[in-house]
Structure formats: C-alpha cells, structure tokens
Amino acid sequence: MAEQRHLVVGGGLAGLMTTIKICEAGGKVDLFSVVPVKRSHSVCAQGGINAAVNWKGEGDSPAAHFDDTIYGGDFLANQPPVKAMCDAGAAIIFLLDRMGVPFNRTPEGLLDFRRFGGTKHHRTAFAGATTGQQMLYALDEQVRRYEAQGQVRKFETWEFLGAILDDGGVCRGLTALDLRNMKVETFVGDTVALATGGPGIVFGRSTNSVVNTGTAASAAYQQGAFYANGEFIQVHPTAIPGEDKHRLISESVRGEGGRMWTVRDGKPWYFLEEMYPAYGNLVPRDIASRAVFKVVFEMGLGVDGENAVYLDVTHKDPEELTRRLGGVLEIYEKFKGADPRQVPMKVFPAMHYSMGGLWVDYDHMTNIPGLFAVGEVDYQYHGANRLGANSLLSCLFGGMIAGPKMLAYAKGVKRAAADAANAIVERERRRQEDVYERIYRMEGTENAYALWRELGEWMTQHVTVERYNKALKRTDDKIVELKDRWRRIGLNDRGRWLNQEVSFVKQLWNMLELARVITLGALARDESRGAHFKPEFPERDDARFLKTTKARWTSDGPTLSYEDVDVSMIKLRARKYDVDKSVSA
Amino acid sequence: MDPILLRVKRQARPDAEPYWEEFKIPYRPGHNVHSLLMEVQLRPVRHDGTPTTPVVWDASCLEEVCGSCTMFVNGQVRQACSALVDSLARPIVLEPMKKFPVVRDLAVDRSRMFESLKRVRAWVPIDGTYDLGPGPRLTEATQQFAYALSRCMTCGCCLEACPQYNDHSAFIGPAAIGQAVLKNLHPSGPLTKEERTAELMGVGGIVDCGNAQNCVLVCPKEVPLTRAIGDMGRQATVKFFRDLFRG
Ligand SMILES: Cc1cc2nc3c(=O)[nH]c(=O)nc-3n(C[C@H](O)[C@H](O)[C@H](O)COP(=O)(O)OP(=O)(O)OC[C@H]3O[C@@H](n4cnc5c(N)ncnc54)[C@H](O)[C@@H]3O)c2cc1C
Ligand code: SF4
Ligand code: SF4
Ligand code: FES
Questions:
Q1: In chain A, which residues have their Cβ closer than 8 Å to the Cβ of B85?
Q2: Tens digit of pLDDT for each residue in A122-145?
Q3: Do B4-108 and B111-246 share a fold?
Q4: Does B181 touch chain A (CB under 8 A)?
Q5: Which residues 2-31 in chain B show a CB within 8 A of chain A?
Q6: How many Å apart are CA A209 and CA A211, to the nearest integer?
Q7: Residue spans of chain B under pLDDT 70
Q8: What is the CATH code for A424-547?
Q9: Interface test with B, best of A94, A152, A210 (most B CBs within 10 A)
C-alpha cells in the first residue's frame, strides 16, 4: 500500500499535538501555518492548564473537574468527551512536565497548582504567567525533533485556502497560498486536520492574535462543513482596552487573590464578592463580564467616569507576585506604564474565545469525511461557556484523539485512480486561482481594512455581552451590506510578492460569512445560557434549546438546525454562583 | 498634538533596492508602532500626497510574546507592538532587521534561528507521549533559571546586537546557546547533553563568542544569556578534558 499522507493546518498547541501523535506512530505530516509555528497564538495563554490531581488535599478529582466543566458550560457540551478530557488531565500535565515545561514548583520540588474561575479547587498548573508560551515551545521542540528526522515538512507562511473534495464529498487534500510568491499550490493527503484556532478578529479588537481570523474554519464551512454553536462567544472580564488590541489580564490574577472593585459612595465596593458570595472574584467569565457591564452601564459606576473597573493586587507581596504572575503584570506595566504592585489596574471586558467552531464527532472528524478539526476551531468541550485553563487542556486532549483517529481513518481510505484524482485537484486549484485573480482586479473605492473595522464595531457592540433581537437583526443587515461593499473594494497593492492586502481581502470575506453564523445563531436562540445572554429572554430554556446549533452554508446565508446534547452522565440543574453548587452524582 | 511623522525604509523584494517613504498620521493617545502601521493600511498615501502600497510587516500576538514584529525603531532593535508612540522621539523611523534577509519592507526571514535550534538538538528526547507518570522533581531555583531561559521568543534582537553574528560567519549566536543550556539542565540523560555540548565546541560554537555582552542588554525578555554562555563554556571545558583523558 502507498504511504499515508497527513496534512495538518495550524501549529498552535492543537496542531502540534496532532502532529506529534501521528509521527510517534511512524506517520508523516505536512504542517502548514501562516506564521512560523513557534509564533502561533497559543503563546498568549498566560494563566495555566487544568488537571484535577488533588495535590493540595482538597478532595479534588477528575469527577469534580468534569462536573465543574459541564456546569460552567451550562450543560451544552456533550458529556462523554468532556469526561474523557477531564480523566486525561493528570497524564497530560505529566507529559508536559517530562517534555521540560518549566512549571512552577512547590518547596518540595513538586508541581504547584493555583485556583481559577468556576471552581473551588487549586487545579491549575502554571509556568509563571506565560504557560501557553512554555507549552507551545515544548511541543514545538518535539515537532522539530521529528522534522530533523524527516517525518515533518513545515510550510510556514502558507495559508490554507480550502479542502479538495472529490465528487463524493470526501476530503482528498487541500489548497494553500504561498504567502511569499502568492501562488496557489495543491497538496494531496489521506486526511486533513484544521487546527487553526479561534475567530477573535471577526470582532475587530479582541484579546486574540491578529492571525486569528477564523478564515480557515469559514472556508471549510463554505465547503459544507457544519459550524456548531457559533453564537457562544466568551467575553473576558479583565482586559486593557487598546488601539490595536485589547490585552488580556489573566484570570490567574484573581486566582492568586486579585479583587475587583469600583468606587461607590466614596468607598471601594467589591461588587463580585457582594453579588456572588460563594465564588466571589472567581465566578466564571460570563458572570463577571455581565457584572462589570451592570456596574458600569446600568449603575454608572465606572472608575473615573470611564468604561473601567479596578482589578487589584496591591495587597499582595510584590516578590510573590513577580514569581507567580510576572508575565501578566509586565504586560500592564509595559502597555499602561504603571506598576500593578503599586496601583490597581484598570480593566474592561473584551472578546476572548469562541466556544463554537467546526462541528466534529467524538473522533474529531467534521461531517466531511477525511477532514478533521481540533483545538479552539472545534466546538467539542466547552458548551456555552469555557472555564479558565480548560482550553489548553482541550487543545492537547483533542490532538491526542485526532492524531490516532486520522491514522485509523487513512487505513480505510480508497484512493481514486491517478488521473481522476488529478482532475479533481486541478479543478480546485483553478477555482482558488480564480478567486485571487478576481481580487487582483478589484478597482472600487472601499478599503478592506476600513470595512473590517466597521464589522468589528458592530459585532462588539451587539453580539457580545448583551444581545437584543432587534440589534442582532440590524447587525445581520449590516453584515450583508458589508458583503456588498466588499465587492467594491479597491486594491492598493497589486504586487505578486508577500501581498498582505490581497490575502486580507480574502480573509475578510470569510470573516463576514462567519459573522453571519455567529449573529444569526444568536438571533435564533431565544434563551440565556452561559455566555449567550438575552435580557429579553433571561432564563435558560432546556425544552427548546438544550441543543447544539448547526449552521450549514448556503449562498443566501446560513441555515440552522439543532441536534440533541448528550446529557447522560450529569443531571441538569440550574447554574448559580451566588451559592455553592450542589454536587451531582 | 501634532500629527506623527513616520519614516519607513521599504524594499519591494529580497533583491530590490531599498527606499524611504514618509507618512503623516493624526495623533491619538495610546498609539504604538503597530497601530501606526495599521493607520497606513487604512490610508496608504505618502506624506507628499502620492498614493502608495500599505507597508508590509510581521505581527501576531501584539503583546511582545511571539517575537514576530521585531524591527529597528529609531535605531533600536525591538518589538513594534510594545513600542509606545508617546515614549518615542519623532519622527519615528522604522527599518527592517539588518542581519536577516529582507522579504519585503519590514518583514525578514529568520529561519536560520530555527535551523540553529535543530543544530543544538533543543528538545528533550522523551520516551513517548503515553502516561508514564510525573517528570523528575526540580528545585524551585532550577525551575526559575529554566523558566528564564525558556522565555526566549526567537525574536533575534540578541543576534542583531552581537558583533560576532552575521550572515558570513558560522557563529550560532547567543539565543541558541541559551536553549542548549536550558536543555542540558533537564535531567533527561547525559547522552544528549554530550551531543549538544559537542556541537557547541565545534566551528561556529561557543569559542566564537567575543564576550561583548551586547546580547543580554537588548534582550526584551531578560533571558540570562551571559550566564548561559558562561555555563556552556564551563560544560565545554569539562567535556574537553574528559574526552582528552579518555583518549
Ligand atoms: C490572551 C489569551 C490568554 C489565554 N490564556 C489561556 C489560559 O491561561 N488557559 C487556557 O486554557 N486557555 C487560554 N487561552 C485560550 C487558548 O490560548 C487558546 O484557545 C488556544 O491557545 C488555541 O490553540 P489552538 O492550537 O487551537 O490554536 P492557535 O494557537 O490559535 O493556533 C492556530 C494555528 O493555525 C494557524 N492558522 C490559522 N489560520 C490558518 C490558515 N488559514 N492557514 C494556515 N494556518 C493557519 C496559525 O498560524 C497557528 O499556527 C487564552 C487566550 C488568549 C487570547
Ligand atoms: S557575549 Fe557578545 S559576542 Fe558573545 S554572544 Fe553575546 S553579544 Fe555575541
Ligand atoms: S534571547 Fe532574548 S533577544 Fe535573543 S532571541 Fe531570545 S528573546 Fe530575543
Ligand atoms: S506581535 Fe508578537 S511580539 Fe510583537
């Protein structure tokens, strides 16, 4: 039999783990990424990664982690894969430890753990305050080892454009753009995995890296892959608003004892501690973001009349802060010019994470045979709201599932005869080349970057913390208008060498397609669940909406259908954080 | 406030001649070099009114942790995303890094740095990704040193500043030496340690360092490069004598 070929798109944590798993079994991988993989967005993760090892004698367990995750996600996640992920937590952290991730230590030389939101346990392992960076580097090194052995070929500064589908709708490879010479190339493979991260840039400014446009997921969606739960967008309560991006101040700051407050009647008011006595500053992110909105917009209590509240660690020992949170506090110092050890930080909520993503089965395969999705780009593990430090875990766990499943799938693949296969590949190459040739000829008056800013403002204002049906409808109309104006873009750069404007124009179209999925998914879901909050429908409605939203692309916009959620393991109950959650069986 | 004058050294292709362009950008508080370049994307028109192409540069994280956006800002090699306009002298002058091939405008090709990491085998040769239990215990002090080395984001500032590193010398440069020391710290067996040290004893290795210490001064992540170079020097000496007496 001919040798298997696997194509992995994305070199963040999820893509690298997938690659390692395939290589470890002797497979070969072509790895694609728009940036050198070592510069992927995963480096931004600050706070840590969860695993219920119970090393602090608190009675923690994978079962408790499972329950926190399902409850935190407001019961929207299918339970079996979440349970498997929580059960694997300890093994994953030990693996990273063996790879040399410099996790913080206790005086005895063991791994140290801290607290994060939505749990009562010290469950989060961390490497200073740059955990994602340290983890990404460790995986990057393992992949470099396979690269040196000839098992991995890297295509860095290449952009995935689309899957190559045969007439039976089976994925046979991919097309990618060499961002240097701007040429479309085709790659044939038995499997393709998208590990392309989240879509933060659809919201203009977010806490995400600038490469997180969601363009790859959107391309797959436009080729028939279902996009699931797109409306579930996490807004992080504590970011520093900026001209270019909103920089995150990690939840670990509250995990280490940071307190949120504003001034009321001339005195500090610790609003989270008062509103949610059981969890205080460590309520989940959706709850904290809504509380900040309430304090700032409803009560008019923003600090100094600005859209801001305080996040305060000045009561903590400065040396201890540097050792455990140095990287985060440095960001505030560098970008705001004030030392958080001395003065409270001013923060405000910002778009942060997408719980939704490409629909996958428990093997991480999309509804397109041979096309897999893993990492933030899939929808599998976080339900209606992700708990802090669970994403890094889901990226690694997902990769550990996807890699072996890709190998297994490839074994059963029947390849087409060479000339039939060639015809399909050439057809897709021409389709993609045509797209770019049309972009190169654009001579209108609109500027692509200006359209993107407009999109970001609408999405941020109407499709984040509070959602009203009227505003959602208007936002969708706006997106349709922007798609129309997209056709009237005038190109400023017609060069055929590293033309960033040309690739952005294409990405923008994909962002607009995805924006409609997010907005219309929110419009259709008349309830409040996790991060999706409609003041007009403030209650969770399990009878109608205990369901996964699945968006399917049509040329007139997404059609939505709904799929039951597997809730066979943990019984449904109301989600509240003002009192201790009752532990279920 | 006066508009901000931005001078950018541009280059269409790796083999093309560089040229300068100037842009005038309305002042707003909170700008950094990255957001100025975003303004050029919105209105790619030169200061003299001639339309031009948007400036090309690399960026990803925007919080000085990925290393992408390294360039010269007012003559200093640093990250564009953490270069705050309010703390910069004007006009603001941007140039690409000088010791790496220019791809276009401010974007350069730093793949040599990743190749160097291969040369020193900067990885832990784990037995497998299976559940083999926890890793070795580490003292807090070792962890802190390892963490400091491990924050290197392959930005290349140290190579840019090092008088020994350039495109016609074999010297591997301080960043990769730091990573070799980091991996040698790991208790994963003496064999790979020997290999790494041997690589750095050869041509382009540790002896090429002139000990000018420029590297450590420009590193934005405060990676303890001089300590690492010192440690590697000692490890190399020990290995040299051991090999000698083994015959
Ligand atoms: C500021 C911040 C802090 C965070 N902190 C934490 C934390 O403490 N704990 C936690 O659990 N989670 C955290 N998260 C979330 C977590 O970092 C991400 O969800 C996770 O890193 C995503 O990893 P990934 O592998 O899915 O994708 P990414 O790391 O985003 O990688 C995506 C990859 O795909 C590539 N790519 C994208 N599009 C294309 C294309 N079209 N063609 C080719 N390649 C492409 C990119 O180049 C990149 O290599 C944080 C997120 C942010 C924004
Ligand atoms: S000490 Fe000097 S010569 Fe040695 S690596 Fe650093 S800058 Fe280069
Ligand atoms: S050692 Fe410092 S300056 Fe050198 S590449 Fe690493 S982070 Fe950059
Ligand atoms: S964009 Fe990552 S360091 Fe500047």
A1: none
A2: 999 999 889 999 999 999 999 999
A3: no
A4: no
A5: 12-13, 28, 30-31
A6: 5
A7: 189-190, 247
A8: 1.20.58.100
A9: A210
Index of the ligand 3 atom closest to the CA of residue B153: 7
* Alpha-carbon gap: B234 to the closest alpha carbon of chain A (Å): 23
Here the tokens at position A330 are 């440095």
For residue B191, the model assigns a pLDDT of 73
What is the pTM (predicted TM-score) of this model? 0.96
ipTM computed for the complex: 0.96
Cβ–Cβ below 8 Å for B54 and A501: yes
Q: Of A205, A259, A285, A575, which is the active-site residue?
A: A285
CATH class of B4-108: alpha beta
Tokens of A74: 């407001």
- Identify the residues whose C-beta falls under 6 Å from ligand 4: B 59-62, 64-69, 79, 81
Which residue is associated with the tokens 């929580």? A86
Residues of chain A with CATH 3.90.700.10: 238-349
The residues that bridge with B23 in the sheet, in sequence order, are B6
A478-504 average pLDDT score: 98
pLDDT digits (tens, 9 = 90+) for A47-103: 899 999 998 889 999 999 999 999 999 999 999 999 999 999 999 999 999 999 999
CB of B133 within 8 Å of a chain A CB? The answer is yes
- Where along chain B do its domains lie? 4-108, 111-246
Question: What stretches of A187-317 show up as alpha helix (H) in DSSP?
Answer: 215-222, 252-255, 271-275, 285-293
Tell me if chain B has a CB within 8 Å of the CB of A158: no
User: What CATH class does A238-349 carry?
Assistant: alpha beta
How many whole angstroms from A30 Cα to the centroid of ligand 1? Answer: 19
* A147 touches B at CB < 8 Å: yes
- Tokens coding A170: 């089976």
Residue spans in chain A of domains classed CATH 1.20.58.100: 424-547
Burial of B241 (0-12, 13-18, 19+ CB in 10 A): exposed
| A98: amino acid identity, one letter | R
SS3 state at A98: helix
User: In the CATH scheme, what is the homologous superfamily, with its name and number, of domain B111-246?
Assistant: Alpha-helical ferredoxin (1.10.1060.10)
